[in-house]
Amino acid sequence: MDHETQEKRERLHHNLINMWNFYDEVEQYVGDKGESQDIPDFSSYVQSVIKEPKDQFIETIEISNIHQLASLIKSCSRCPLSEKRTHAVPGEGVINAKVMIIGEGPGGSEDVAGIPFVGEAGVYLESWLKAISLNRKENVFITNVVKCRPPLNRDPENSELTTCFPFLEKQIALIKPEAILCLGKVASNHILGKKGTLSSLRGQFYNYHSIPLLVTYHPSAVLRNESLKGAVWQDLQMLAGFLNLPIKRKGSS
Ligand code: SF4
Description:
Elements: H1 3-30, H2 43-49, H3 56-62, H4 66-74, H5 81-84, E1 92-93, E2 99-103, H6 108-113, H7 120-131, E3 140-144, H8 158-175, E4 179-183, H9 185-192, H10 198-201, E5 206-208, E6 211-216, H11 219-224, H12 229-243
Parallel strand pairs: 2-3, 2-4, 4-6
Antiparallel strand pairs: 1-3, 5-6
């Protein structure tokens, strides 16, 4: 809390206690109350009246459009992930997307290109999207929970996820997707605010600020373990069914 806010709160708290004592004394003289009353706890009232000023960063994000937000992300150095990145990767796709895809963080190819999901996992993701009539040029927005590559593709740390999250929150608010598809455990756990394995979280829609949210495995995980393919296909069919998207079978255009 900044010094000025703390001083204001202390002053108000002090004045409230003085007022309480004054009225308590008056009541004892003029009223029929015998004993003096305990002083109530004014802390939550004081906090609700004198709020902490908003962080300048949050204020700037709140008034940004999608392009301004991308510029803020590209120049951001609010967490240590900025130190080793080549490019921050804000995301790519359309506003009012049918589906917003949210992965974990940029990998090596994405870090070089500044574009999300362009490596092997990205090509694989494109094939998933195509199978349910989606693509990033027309009806999808793709991004990650952290916008800068974690060194050696390690999991983002909690402090990095938390620091970067206001960017994602604002992107979701601006893009207004009909549904969100979270890829992998890290993104799913952070966005849903609950710890769980991917297998325990998938298979149901969650409500994220009134937006239906589904989770599935990250394409990189499926490339490493092909036995997950069936589960991903179930999830994609569930999403397609919910959004009335045509499912394209292999060989159909
Ligand atoms: S990961 Fe997010 S918070 Fe950290 S430097 Fe990159 S854009 Fe900023």
